[in-house]
C-alpha cells in the first residue's frame, strides 16, 4: 500500500517529464497535425489555378478547351474533397458551474465533528491531518444532512445527483437562451455513481426531451472524463449538422465515501466536494458570433495497457463489504508518464514553429545522433494564455507548477478552485475557466489549455480559443459574487 505524506497524498514527486520525452510521442503529435490539416494543402492548389486562369483571356480559354476542361475537373474535384474532408467547427456557446446553496457549506472543523462518530481515533486524526494540509477552505460544499453512512442510500445519491445536474443545466439554459428541446446530444459523466435508469435518462425525463435525442452516460472514467466527453461530443458533432450537444460533468461525493481504516482510501473523503458543470457545444455556423470559445484540439492519452497504470487507482471491496478507492505507491509516477505522453503529443499542435524546431532538433540530436547535449525544454507559456489544470490535490498542483515552469498567476485558477470548491472531479477544469472569466482575464484570441487525469490511467487535454473578450461585469458565474476576495494566501 502507498506511503502517505503528511498532507495525506501519495508520497512521491512527479517525474520531470519534460526532460525525458520520447521520440515516438513527438511523431504521434506530428501525425495528428498532418492528419487534421492535410485538407489545407488543397487551398493553395485552388488559389494557384485561379491565379493562372486570371492571366488568360477569353480567347485563350476558347482556343484551349482541353486545358479549361482539365482545370474545371481539378477545381471541382479538389473543392469537393475540401468541403467533404474539412471538419466542422465546434463552438462552446457557454458553460455553467453549479454553486450549491449555503446550507451545504461546511467548515473543516464541523466536518471533523461529523466524522467523529464514524471512525476510530487513528483514522479520524489521519483525516484531520489531510484536511489541514489539503489547501481547501472552510467554505466548500458537502450534502451535510446526508453525510452519515446510514443515509448513503441509492435514493439520497439520486437526489444529490439531480440537485447538482439540474442546477447546472438550468443556469446554462438561462445564460444561453437555448431551448432544451433544441439539444440533440446529451452526454453525462459521473465516475462512481451510475444508477439505472442512467443520469442521462434522468435529464431526458426531467426536461421531457424528444425521442430522437442521442444520449451517452460515461462511468468509471475518473476525473478526466469531462474532457473525454468533449472529445465524444466533438466526434458526434462532426457527423450531425446544425446540432447542440449538452455535456454534464459531476460526481456524487457520498457514493465514494469510505468508512474503513485503509489510509489511502480515506484521502478522497477529505478532498472531494459537491459540484457540477454544464457545457453547451454547437456546430452551427450561426452560433459563432455569440459563442465564447472554439474547440481547437483534443488529445487523449490512455495508459491502461500497462498493468501498473491500470491498477494505480482501483476501486475494490474489503472483506467486511466496505468499498473504497485504493491508491497505489505508483500513482504519481504513472501520472507523470501519462502527462509526459500527452504533453509531448500536444506540442506539435500548439507550440510556435520556433519552439518546435528547437525542441525537435534537440530531441533528434539526443535520441538519434546520440549527442550528449542538454535537452531543450519547450515553453508552453508561448502556446497558452490560460492553464486550467484539474484541481485534484495540492501536491499534484505543486509538481505541475514546477514541471511546466508556470507562474503563480497561471496556477491561480487551479489553486483557488481547490481552495474554494475542493476537488469537484471532472467538472473542476470548468470552475478553473470560470475563475479566469470572473477575473476579466479572457481576451479575444486567448488560448486556454484544460488538462485532466484520472483512473485507467488517463490524461486528456482540450485546447480552446476565445472568440470574444469575456466581460466580467456582464457575464455572471459561480465566482462572480465573491471574486474580489481572490486570490487568497493558502496556508500550508
UniProtKB/TrEMBL annotation:
Pfam families from the UniProt entry: ACP_syn_III_C, FAE1_CUT1_RppA
Record's protein name: 3-ketoacyl-CoA synthase
Pathway this chain belongs to: Lipid metabolism; fatty acid biosynthesis
Gene Ontology molecular function, alphabetical: fatty acid elongase activity
GO cellular component, one term: membrane
Gene: KCS20_1
FAE domain: residues covered: 82-367
Residue stretches spanning the membrane: 32-53, 65-84
Amino acid at each position: 500500500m502507498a506511503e502517505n505524506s503528511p498532507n495525506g497524498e501519495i508520497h512521491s514527486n512527479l517525474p520531470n517529464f519534460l526532460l525525458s520525452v520520447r521520440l515516438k510521442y513527438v511523431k504521434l503529435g506530428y501525425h495528428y497535425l498532418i492528419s487534421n490539416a492535410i485538407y489545407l494543402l488543397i487551398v493553395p492548389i485552388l488559389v494557384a489555378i485561379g491565379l493562372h486562369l486570371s492571366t488568360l483571356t477569353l480567347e485563350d480559354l476558347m482556343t484551349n478547351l482541353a486545358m479549361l476542361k482539365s482545370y474545371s475537373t481539378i477545381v471541382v474535384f479538389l473543392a469537393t474533397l475540401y468541403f467533404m474532408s474539412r471538419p466542422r467547427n465546434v463552438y462552446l456557446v457557454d458553460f455553467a458551474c453549479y454553486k450549491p446553496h449555503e446550507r451545504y457549506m461546511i467548515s473543516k472543523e464541523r466536518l471533523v465533528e461529523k466524522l467523529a462518530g464514524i471512525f476510530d481515533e487513528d483514522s479520524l486524526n489521519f483525516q484531520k491531518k489531510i484536511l489541514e494540509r489539503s489547501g481547501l477552505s472552510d467554505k466548500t460544499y458537502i450534502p451535510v444532512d446526508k453525510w452519515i453512512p446510514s443515509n448513503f442510500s441509492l435514493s439520497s445519491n439520486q437526489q444529490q445527483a439531480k440537485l447538482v445536474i439540474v442546477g447546472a443545466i438550468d443556469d446554462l439554459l438561462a445564460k444561453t437562451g437555448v431551448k432544451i428541446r433544441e439539444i440533440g446530444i446529451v452526454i453525462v459523466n459521473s465516475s462512481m455513481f451510475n444508477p439505472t435508469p442512467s443520469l442521462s435518462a434522468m435529464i431526458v425525463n426531467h426536461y421531457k426531451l424528444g425521442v430522437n435525442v442521442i444520449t451517452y452516460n460515461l462511468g468509471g472514467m475518473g476525473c478526466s472524463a469531462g474532457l473525454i466527453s468533449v472529445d465524444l461530443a466533438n466526434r458526434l458533432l462532426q457527423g450531425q449538422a446544425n446540432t447542440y450537444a449538452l455535456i454534464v460533468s459531476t460526481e456524487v461525493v457520498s457514493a465514494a465515501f469510505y468508512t474503513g481504516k485503509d489510509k489511502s482510501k480515506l484521502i478522497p473523503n477529505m478532498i472531494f466536494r459537491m459540484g457540477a458543470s454544464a457545457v453547451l457545444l454547437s456546430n452551427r455556423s450561426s452560433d459563432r458570433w455569440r459563442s465564447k470559445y472554439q474547440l481547437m484540439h483534443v488529445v487523449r492519452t490512455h495508459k491502461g495497457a500497462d498493468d501498473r497504470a491500470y491498477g494505480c487507482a482501483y476501486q475494490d471491496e474489503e472483506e467486511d463489504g466496505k468499498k473504497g478507492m485504493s491508491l497505489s505507491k505508483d500513482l504519481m509516477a504513472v501520472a507523470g508518464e501519462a502527462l509526459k505522453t500527452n504533453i509531448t503529443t500536444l506540442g506539435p499542435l500548439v507550440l510556435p514553429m520556433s519552439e518546435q524546431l528547437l525542441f525537435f532538433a534537440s530531441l533528434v540530436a539526443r535520441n538519434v545522433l546520440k549527442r550528449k547535449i542538454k535537452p531543450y525544454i519547450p515553453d508552453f507559456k508561448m502556446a497558452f494564455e490560460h492553464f486550467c489544470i484539474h484541481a485534484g490535490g495540492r501536491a499534484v498542483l505543486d509538481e505541475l507548477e514546477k514541471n511546466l515552469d508556470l507562474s503563480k498567476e497561471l496556477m491561480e485558477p487551479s489553486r483557488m478552485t481547490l481552495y474554494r470548491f475542493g476537488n469537484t472531479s471532472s467538472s473542476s477544469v470548468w470552475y478553473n475557466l470560470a475563475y479566469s472569466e470572473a477575473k476579466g482575464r479572457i481576451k479575444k484570441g486567448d488560448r486556454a489549455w484544460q488538462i485532466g487525469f484520472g483512473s485507467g490511467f488517463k490524461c486528456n487535454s482540450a485546447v480552446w480559443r476565445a472568440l470574444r473578450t469575456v466581460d466580467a461585469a456582464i457575464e455572471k458565474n459561480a465566482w462572480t459574487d465573491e471574486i474580489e476576495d481572490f486570490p487568497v494566501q493558502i496556508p500550508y
